[in-house]
Amino acid sequence: MTRFLLAALAISTFISAATASEPVPKESLLAPPADATRYVIVSDTNTHGDEWRWETEEGAIAFRKSQTLRGWITETDALVVMGYDGKPLRIQIRGITPRGNAAEEMVTDENGIRWDSGADTGTAPPDGGFYLTKGGPDAMFGMLVEYMLDKGEVQLLPTGTARLRDGGTLSIEDDDGDLEARLIFIEGLQPAPTPVWVDDKGRHLASISWMGLIREGYQEHFKTMRKMQEEAAQQAAASVARRFLTEDARRPLLIDNVRLFDAEAGRFLENQAVTTQDGRITAVGPAGSLKVADGGRVLDGQGKTLVPGLWDSHKHYGNGYDLLANVATGMTSIRSPGNALDKLVWAKKARAAGNLLSPEVFGAIIIDQDHPLSAQGASLVSSEEETIAAVQKAADADLWGVKFYTSMNPEWIAPAAAEAHRLGLNVLGHVPATMRPLEAVRAGYDEVTHLNFIIMQDLPQEVVDVSNTAARFEGPARSAKDVDLDGPVMTEFVAELKQRGTWVDPTIMIFEGFFLNDEPQLPPAIVPYAGTLPAVLERGLKTGGYPLFGDVTRDDFRKSYEKMVALIGKLNEAEVPIVAGTDGMGLELVREIEIYEQAGMSKAQALQTATINPARLVGIADRTGSITKGKEADLLLVNGDVSAELGALRRVHTVVSDGYVMDGNELRAAAGFSGMPR
For the chain, how many structural domains are there in total? Predict the structure, then answer.
């Protein structure tokens, strides 16, 4: 009892010292003692920081996180008073993250549980569920894991239910002999089960995804542990694939009396019919003019729109659940401009074998200079020769392209791009620091990703010189509003992009959320999915915009965003080819093309950026990307009139991929979503 009272007193003092308005500076955060349990933040390419966990003299559990990731700083701490039932009674989180103040608080007393995460506030009875923090050091997740090992299924606060599923064990040698590390999957937090590792005493050992948090001394096992959990995820993905990719699902199909988008002509046609058989489109004609082959099925297209299967042209993925979610949102193809080589190879092989329900993936590896600010998961190089060797490795793996990143040595771009083109690879990427986008294009870029790099053609040199830091966001936020789109710099640049046939992948919806959101809320791209996502995921997506800095105001952000949207209009007017990508979950794709319409595109032009345009970019427009006789049966049937409302694309009724006909509701359920988006 004494230790509990002391801990409660300690955190009360801790809480009173924090202010809601200003983040607690690094020097005022908790300092871990020498005997604290240390975790290391790692990726394939580097070590990015540390976390610590320890028990205070008063009996509270303390955490500290210190991370630098490509120039973005996270410095946070947390103090937790645990109850006798193993649930937190009080939590206080302090510090700073790339999204601003980390302040979060939960308090339990005789009146119940109260919390303020910065994104939401709420109350619950004193015997409510386990409060899951929105932020704070990642090592705090270990408290939930350790509680679930004892309790099994757990009700969460603010909402949701978490369940535990065993994933097997891995024998790891350490200083004390062999450690039996246990893999656990937590279901109910995200669409995909969340993997976590505990030691043989049930203590949190590691949490691994695209990066890893792993207890000090076990870093060398990072890749082995990740491989095991990925293999388990692959088995689960194969099970899902077998449910949908059946012989029955590939029966001949007639979709009749439907509004159809002719992607090649850029027009909508009324009262149309389409048939498919053996994975191909066999006929397109007026409603009522076609018949389904023997044993086939008929779908009534009344009140619906049929479009080619969608493309997300900027989609990084982690596992099969990510790809399943893409299919559930109507994607039959994606470009992955930067995934680990092994993931790209796995997805291609697993899909071909029928063990993965996935869009067709056209992948590129990231190549970046070995540098403190290099990209996670990149192939790191230290010379021109190594850069060319990395390009050759991508070609040997039968990839589609190579993507250069922001810390690349500009002098290596031209020779590496020349080698890529010789080998039949496309060249794309961020623009390396010190280079302007036109220099990258002249050095061999076929495509520039992200509109912030496009507008850097006319930003101050001091922004361009450090664009591998936060400046790649902060520079456009401050200065894009001042760019003269009709001035000679941008006019000549856009004209050369057109002349060279250089593609642009804007990902403008990222900047809508960053620049326009003020208070924590769902990004506009996610708002239509509110209530259909797992509760924990939806809460985690509620963030404010990019934090203000210096003398920059939110009005500056807004004006700069508007200028960037206008730039898309200028690119379209000049007939610079554009493809739609999200650099997100994929749910954001429709919002991306809605913004293109705001920029001046017609609905048909906007939809072309997610159908026929990427097929042309990848070089497969002869087999997919439009609803044309003889092409692959990659189709999306949605509820509503897309010619009147692009948002109807979210209301997926049926997805046809390689001739497999799949119900939209069943796909969403398998992917971990519920209900129809708005």
Answer: 3
